[in-house]
Amino acid sequence: MSVITSRGNPRVRRWRELMRDARERRSQRRAMIEGENLLSAFLRSEQTVENLILSKTGSSRNEFIALAKHSGKTPTVLADAVFRTIVDVAEPSGIAAEIAIPPGARGLGIAPCCVFLEGIQDAGNVGAILRSAAAFGIRHAVLGRGCADVWSPKVLRAAAGAHFTMQLAESADLATAIGNFGGKTVCTVPRGGIGLSAAVLSGRIGWILGTEGKGASDALAARATLKVTIPMPGGAESLNVAAAAAICFYEFSRRGALA
Protein backbone atom coordinates (compact mmCIF):
# COMPACT_ATOMS: atom_id res chain seq x y z
CA MET A 1 0.00 0.00 0.00
CA SER A 2 1.37 3.38 -1.06
CA VAL A 3 1.00 6.16 1.51
CA ILE A 4 1.32 9.89 0.70
CA THR A 5 3.53 11.46 3.34
CA SER A 6 4.07 14.97 1.93
CA ARG A 7 1.80 17.89 2.75
CA GLY A 8 3.04 19.50 -0.46
CA ASN A 9 1.65 16.75 -2.68
CA PRO A 10 -0.50 18.44 -5.39
CA ARG A 11 -3.58 16.35 -4.57
CA VAL A 12 -3.22 17.07 -0.87
CA ARG A 13 -2.89 20.79 -1.54
CA ARG A 14 -6.00 20.74 -3.72
CA TRP A 15 -8.09 18.88 -1.12
CA ARG A 16 -6.91 21.30 1.54
CA GLU A 17 -8.02 24.24 -0.61
CA LEU A 18 -11.41 22.67 -1.26
CA MET A 19 -11.90 22.15 2.45
CA ARG A 20 -10.95 25.72 3.39
CA ASP A 21 -11.77 28.02 0.48
CA ALA A 22 -15.31 28.72 -0.75
CA ARG A 23 -13.95 30.29 -3.93
CA GLU A 24 -12.19 27.06 -4.85
CA ARG A 25 -15.35 25.08 -4.19
CA ARG A 26 -17.37 27.39 -6.41
CA SER A 27 -14.84 27.46 -9.24
CA GLN A 28 -14.19 23.71 -9.26
CA ARG A 29 -17.75 22.67 -8.32
CA ARG A 30 -16.26 20.25 -5.80
CA ALA A 31 -16.55 19.91 -2.02
CA MET A 32 -15.06 17.75 0.72
CA ILE A 33 -16.96 15.63 3.20
CA GLU A 34 -15.38 14.06 6.28
CA GLY A 35 -16.45 11.25 8.55
CA GLU A 36 -18.25 7.95 8.33
CA ASN A 37 -21.75 9.36 8.84
CA LEU A 38 -21.59 11.94 6.06
CA LEU A 39 -19.98 9.54 3.64
CA SER A 40 -22.59 6.86 4.42
CA ALA A 41 -25.38 9.39 3.83
CA PHE A 42 -23.80 10.42 0.53
CA LEU A 43 -23.50 6.84 -0.67
CA ARG A 44 -27.12 6.10 0.29
CA SER A 45 -28.15 8.87 -2.10
CA GLU A 46 -26.58 6.80 -4.90
CA GLN A 47 -24.23 9.57 -5.95
CA THR A 48 -20.66 8.92 -7.02
CA VAL A 49 -17.60 9.81 -4.98
CA GLU A 50 -14.91 11.59 -6.99
CA ASN A 51 -12.05 10.61 -4.68
CA LEU A 52 -12.03 8.59 -1.47
CA ILE A 53 -9.34 9.39 1.08
CA LEU A 54 -8.23 7.44 4.15
CA SER A 55 -5.71 8.15 6.85
CA LYS A 56 -3.07 5.48 7.40
CA THR A 57 -4.78 4.48 10.64
CA GLY A 58 -8.23 4.60 9.07
CA SER A 59 -7.16 2.32 6.23
CA SER A 60 -7.15 -0.65 8.61
CA ARG A 61 -10.67 -0.10 9.96
CA ASN A 62 -13.14 -2.68 8.66
CA GLU A 63 -16.04 -0.22 8.45
CA PHE A 64 -13.96 2.13 6.29
CA ILE A 65 -12.86 -0.74 4.06
CA ALA A 66 -16.55 -1.59 3.59
CA LEU A 67 -17.39 2.02 2.69
CA ALA A 68 -14.52 2.08 0.20
CA LYS A 69 -15.87 -1.06 -1.41
CA HIS A 70 -19.37 0.43 -1.53
CA SER A 71 -18.04 3.60 -3.16
CA GLY A 72 -16.32 1.63 -5.92
CA LYS A 73 -13.24 3.83 -5.57
CA THR A 74 -9.73 2.79 -4.68
CA PRO A 75 -8.88 5.00 -1.72
CA THR A 76 -5.91 7.31 -1.54
CA VAL A 77 -4.10 6.78 1.77
CA LEU A 78 -2.45 9.68 3.55
CA ALA A 79 -0.14 9.64 6.53
CA ASP A 80 -2.15 10.54 9.62
CA ALA A 81 -0.47 13.93 10.01
CA VAL A 82 -1.09 14.74 6.34
CA PHE A 83 -4.73 13.63 6.57
CA ARG A 84 -5.29 16.06 9.42
CA THR A 85 -4.31 18.96 7.16
CA ILE A 86 -7.18 18.32 4.73
CA VAL A 87 -10.01 18.14 7.26
CA ASP A 88 -11.76 20.71 9.41
CA VAL A 89 -12.02 18.85 12.72
CA ALA A 90 -9.52 18.50 15.53
CA GLU A 91 -9.94 14.72 15.86
CA PRO A 92 -10.68 13.32 12.40
CA SER A 93 -12.16 9.87 12.05
CA GLY A 94 -9.82 8.95 9.21
CA ILE A 95 -12.11 8.93 6.17
CA ALA A 96 -12.99 11.73 3.76
CA ALA A 97 -14.15 12.15 0.19
CA GLU A 98 -14.15 14.66 -2.62
CA ILE A 99 -17.61 15.03 -4.16
CA ALA A 100 -19.07 16.97 -7.06
CA ILE A 101 -21.37 19.87 -6.17
CA PRO A 102 -24.61 19.27 -8.05
CA PRO A 103 -26.23 21.95 -10.22
CA GLY A 104 -28.64 24.40 -8.59
CA ALA A 105 -32.11 23.46 -7.43
CA ARG A 106 -34.25 21.91 -10.15
CA GLY A 107 -38.02 21.73 -10.28
CA LEU A 108 -38.59 24.81 -8.12
CA GLY A 109 -41.77 25.68 -9.97
CA ILE A 110 -43.44 22.41 -8.98
CA ALA A 111 -41.85 21.88 -5.56
CA PRO A 112 -44.50 21.27 -2.86
CA CYS A 113 -42.42 23.30 -0.40
CA CYS A 114 -39.25 25.36 -0.39
CA VAL A 115 -37.13 27.24 2.14
CA PHE A 116 -35.75 30.67 1.25
CA LEU A 117 -32.88 31.90 3.44
CA GLU A 118 -31.81 35.55 3.54
CA GLY A 119 -28.59 36.75 5.13
CA ILE A 120 -28.12 33.83 7.52
CA GLN A 121 -24.37 33.85 8.00
CA ASP A 122 -23.96 31.37 10.84
CA ALA A 123 -22.94 28.02 9.32
CA GLY A 124 -24.44 26.05 12.20
CA ASN A 125 -27.82 27.72 11.73
CA VAL A 126 -27.84 27.14 7.98
CA GLY A 127 -26.96 23.47 8.44
CA ALA A 128 -29.53 22.98 11.20
CA ILE A 129 -32.26 24.54 9.05
CA LEU A 130 -31.44 22.18 6.19
CA ARG A 131 -31.39 19.22 8.57
CA SER A 132 -34.85 20.11 9.89
CA ALA A 133 -36.17 20.73 6.38
CA ALA A 134 -35.04 17.31 5.21
CA ALA A 135 -36.39 15.66 8.36
CA PHE A 136 -39.87 17.05 7.69
CA GLY A 137 -39.91 16.21 3.99
CA ILE A 138 -38.93 19.56 2.47
CA ARG A 139 -36.69 18.96 -0.54
CA HIS A 140 -35.84 22.42 -1.87
CA ALA A 141 -33.86 25.29 -0.35
CA VAL A 142 -32.65 28.55 -1.89
CA LEU A 143 -29.95 30.56 -0.14
CA GLY A 144 -29.60 34.23 -0.98
CA ARG A 145 -26.38 36.16 -1.27
CA GLY A 146 -24.74 36.70 2.09
CA CYS A 147 -25.68 33.33 3.56
CA ALA A 148 -23.01 30.94 4.79
CA ASP A 149 -21.49 28.81 2.05
CA VAL A 150 -23.82 25.84 1.89
CA TRP A 151 -20.99 23.43 0.96
CA SER A 152 -18.62 24.51 3.73
CA PRO A 153 -17.49 21.81 6.18
CA LYS A 154 -19.41 23.37 9.09
CA VAL A 155 -22.69 23.55 7.18
CA LEU A 156 -22.23 20.01 5.90
CA ARG A 157 -21.65 18.68 9.43
CA ALA A 158 -24.60 20.57 10.91
CA ALA A 159 -26.92 19.41 8.12
CA ALA A 160 -26.02 15.75 8.81
CA GLY A 161 -26.59 14.52 5.27
CA ALA A 162 -29.52 16.78 4.28
CA HIS A 163 -27.51 18.07 1.29
CA PHE A 164 -27.75 14.68 -0.36
CA THR A 165 -31.56 14.48 -0.27
CA MET A 166 -32.31 18.10 -1.21
CA GLN A 167 -32.18 20.42 -4.20
CA LEU A 168 -30.07 23.42 -3.18
CA ALA A 169 -29.42 26.77 -4.81
CA GLU A 170 -26.95 29.31 -3.41
CA SER A 171 -26.06 32.96 -3.96
CA ALA A 172 -29.47 33.34 -5.55
CA ASP A 173 -31.58 36.39 -6.21
CA LEU A 174 -34.35 35.57 -3.75
CA ALA A 175 -36.99 37.79 -5.35
CA THR A 176 -36.50 35.99 -8.66
CA ALA A 177 -36.44 32.57 -6.99
CA ILE A 178 -39.68 33.30 -5.12
CA GLY A 179 -41.26 34.33 -8.41
CA ASN A 180 -40.10 31.12 -10.04
CA PHE A 181 -41.50 29.10 -7.14
CA GLY A 182 -44.90 30.65 -7.64
CA GLY A 183 -46.58 29.28 -4.52
CA LYS A 184 -47.76 30.83 -1.28
CA THR A 185 -44.92 32.36 0.73
CA VAL A 186 -44.84 32.53 4.53
CA CYS A 187 -42.39 34.87 6.23
CA THR A 188 -41.49 34.37 9.89
CA VAL A 189 -41.42 37.60 11.89
CA PRO A 190 -40.53 38.07 15.58
CA ARG A 191 -43.78 39.91 16.32
CA GLY A 192 -46.93 41.19 14.68
CA GLY A 193 -47.63 38.21 12.45
CA ILE A 194 -50.46 35.68 12.52
CA GLY A 195 -49.95 33.08 15.24
CA LEU A 196 -48.41 30.01 13.63
CA SER A 197 -51.20 27.71 14.80
CA ALA A 198 -53.81 29.99 13.18
CA ALA A 199 -52.01 30.39 9.86
CA VAL A 200 -53.46 28.70 6.78
CA LEU A 201 -50.67 26.47 5.51
CA SER A 202 -52.43 24.70 2.66
CA GLY A 203 -51.07 24.43 -0.86
CA ARG A 204 -47.51 24.95 -1.99
CA ILE A 205 -45.60 26.82 0.71
CA GLY A 206 -42.32 28.72 0.55
CA TRP A 207 -40.86 29.59 3.96
CA ILE A 208 -38.93 32.88 4.11
CA LEU A 209 -36.39 33.00 6.94
CA GLY A 210 -34.15 35.95 7.71
CA THR A 211 -31.51 36.84 10.23
CA GLU A 212 -32.16 36.06 13.86
CA GLY A 213 -32.41 39.61 15.15
CA LYS A 214 -33.95 41.55 12.26
CA GLY A 215 -35.73 38.80 10.37
CA ALA A 216 -36.24 39.08 6.64
CA SER A 217 -35.64 42.42 4.95
CA ASP A 218 -38.66 44.68 4.44
CA ALA A 219 -38.41 44.22 0.68
CA LEU A 220 -38.49 40.43 0.91
CA ALA A 221 -41.12 40.33 3.65
CA ALA A 222 -43.35 42.49 1.45
CA ARG A 223 -43.42 39.67 -1.09
CA ALA A 224 -44.82 37.20 1.44
CA THR A 225 -48.39 36.00 1.17
CA LEU A 226 -48.60 36.04 4.97
CA LYS A 227 -46.41 36.69 7.98
CA VAL A 228 -46.39 34.36 10.97
CA THR A 229 -45.13 34.70 14.51
CA ILE A 230 -44.39 31.90 16.96
CA PRO A 231 -45.97 32.76 20.34
CA MET A 232 -43.39 32.80 23.15
CA PRO A 233 -45.13 32.90 26.54
CA GLY A 234 -41.75 32.79 28.28
CA GLY A 235 -41.06 36.34 27.20
CA ALA A 236 -37.91 35.80 25.12
CA GLU A 237 -37.25 38.53 22.57
CA SER A 238 -36.70 36.07 19.73
CA LEU A 239 -35.95 32.47 18.88
CA ASN A 240 -32.81 31.18 17.25
CA VAL A 241 -33.64 31.09 13.54
CA ALA A 242 -32.89 27.36 13.27
CA ALA A 243 -35.19 26.64 16.23
CA ALA A 244 -37.94 28.78 14.70
CA ALA A 245 -37.53 26.96 11.38
CA ALA A 246 -37.87 23.55 13.03
CA ILE A 247 -41.08 24.62 14.78
CA CYS A 248 -42.55 25.92 11.52
CA PHE A 249 -41.59 22.83 9.56
CA TYR A 250 -43.03 20.57 12.24
CA GLU A 251 -46.34 22.45 12.22
CA PHE A 252 -46.44 22.24 8.42
CA SER A 253 -45.71 18.51 8.55
CA ARG A 254 -48.17 17.89 11.41
CA ARG A 255 -51.02 19.15 9.28
CA GLY A 256 -50.12 16.65 6.59
CA ALA A 257 -49.31 19.32 4.04
CA LEU A 258 -46.62 17.16 2.40
CA ALA A 259 -48.47 13.85 2.73
How far apart are the first and last residues' alpha carbons, in Å?
A: 50 Å
- CATH fold-level label of the largest domain: Alpha/beta knot
Strand order of the largest sheet: 8-7-6-11-9-12-10
- Helical amount: 25-40%
| CATH architecture descriptor name of the largest domain | 3-Layer(aba) Sandwich
Order of helices and strands: EHHEHEHEHEEHEHEHEEEHEH
Q: Provide the low-confidence segments as ranges.
A: none
Percent of residues in β-strands: 15-25%
Top keywords for this entry?
20% strand; 259 residues; alpha/beta; Alpha/beta knot; five-stranded mixed sheet; seven-stranded parallel sheet; 60s Ribosomal Protein L30, Chain: A
Structure description:
There is one protein chain. With 259 residues, the protein is of the alpha/beta class. The protein folds into 2 domains: 98 residues, 60s Ribosomal Protein L30, Chain: A (2-Layer Sandwich); 147 residues, Alpha/beta knot. It is built from 10 helices and 12 strands. The strands form 2 sheets. Strands 8-7-6-11-9-12-10 form a 7-stranded parallel beta sheet, sandwiched between helices. The chain is elongated.
